[in-house]
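Researcher: Let's try something more involved. This one mixes different molecule types, so please make sure each is placed in the same coordinate frame as the others.
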Amino acid sequence: MSTTTEAQSHDDRGRGLHAVKVGARRGLREFRISLRNPEDISFYVFWGVGIVVYLFLNRREVIEPVGLTVPQFALAGILATMVVFGGVVGPAFALVTEKEDGTLLRAKAAPHGIRGYVTGQVVLQSLGMLPMLVIVVIPTAFFADRLMHRGAVGWFGVAALLLLGLAAALPLGIVMGAVARKPSQVTTWGLLPVFGLSAISGVFFPISAMWGWVQGVAQVFPIYWLGHGLRWAFLPDDAAVVEVGGEWRLLEAIGVLGAWGALGMLLAPRVLRRMARRESGSAVEARRQERMQRLG
Amino acid sequence: MAETVIAVRDLRMRYGSRDVLDGVDLEVRRGEVITLLGPNGAGKTTTIEILEGFRERSGGDVRVLGEDPARASEEWRAGIGIVLQSWRDHRRWRVRELLAHLGEYYAPYGTAERPRPRDVDELIDRVGLTDSADQMLMRLSGGQRRRLDVAIGIVGRPELLFLDEPTAGFDPEARRDFHDLVHGLVDLEDTTVVLTTHDLAEAEKLADRILVLAGGRIVADGSADALTRQVRARAEVRWSRDGQRFVHAADDATAFVRSLFVQHGDEIADLEVRRASLEDTYMQLVHQHETGSSPDPGSGFARPADVAGTGGEATR
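Model: All components are placed in one shared frame. Result:
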């Protein structure tokens, strides 16, 4: 008897894994679909080019007391904001709209479909970062003199930190999207706070220019720490003077990002289970009605 | 006798203080096609959603394919097909792309007699979407979208298929195709089908058994024929005499017509005797329920008869 149960649970693990693979292919396909969609392309280009133009126009502006130009200093913080913003707001909006349009219910109707759907979101949102990263980093590398001070180690650090940042942000975004009932809630609880945090996290000017308590708030959240880690990777050692405490704190950065990731991953499965349990045709229909009233 | 696929006893569903389902009992056997009829708000969708495992119930025993849907496994899920309503999901996906993707989830659950998923191109052909296979969903017409919904519902070759108003928005040809498809699923693959509809002709055509849900209970259960007999509605007799038209509802149409001829002989013309249709039966069942009257043979059918004539009441 116990062997049958074991065999069954082994079977089920295999099938769960199969759904993860199906979901990964789903994410790839959705990414390809977004690349053939003019709206998505213009979104990438508009923001990407906007950032590059800003950096280019300020390429001779020097930030004291580090003696670095704006593109050199700000690129790390901009990448951090992009990753946290995309990682939180991207899946949150996707989930809340796809609850509303019935995509999630279709996933629920298939065996292990929600697992596949969430995997698909993780893959899609992670890949969705690439066009912006490419559009921003490659041109900036040409006019920001000496962008990378640590060479290969630095680039490896950048890649690893970006992945860690994604791991911190994506579960939070998924939790937010699962809890939110309508897109405006994602704006209130996701979009605006991330904008606010990027303003106080030392992205465009050193955080040491902010008041002490603001520095304290910024240090609770991932944007400052991801930016800090990336600045460590990009900038020379003595640029640490403008960081909080005047030194590089790479371990703390990894610790805070890891803690956010762990918190998100602890919450996400519970919240997703609750969300999936509540999905039904009449729930989708009710939201559709509500949406039509909202749009008047 | 075929194995029981759905067994429901005393199913209850309560929202706040309102009982939407108030003790539903039903049983469905393998290969049966049953139709749930009932006025809006009678609890059809709630019942189906509970059976699909999409909604938790307030009380009662429910077994679907041997498991409790509220706690069922993913393997169970693979045996269930659901034709959802059309929303705006996957707008940017193409037809073949989406069917292939959703079908993939079922691959580990295939068996020799039920290979899963279905071949996608064959399925597309079967629902008549071959010409739109590479279209984006947002460019499909309403009818095409509905055909795709049906295709998605059966891509995993389900043992049990739920259809909630599947033919809403179908033109007559699409409706005919859909009926052929359902007959095919039942005859060739022994699929059990539970559907809701507002189209009584469709219910009559497709269903082995019709269940009428009203006020949170099943008020009738049987074939279309049996239901009509159960209600024993009066037949409607129409005729004309001296250029005037008459209508009368008769408990015993044969005896009434005989007396008519005895009384008026050759003056009777345009004689028509119409038995109660499923629609009449249905209207009467629902009406009885709503007015709270006990089944009173014949009472409901008096409505269209005695007021419809232009020539006044027929004499006996």
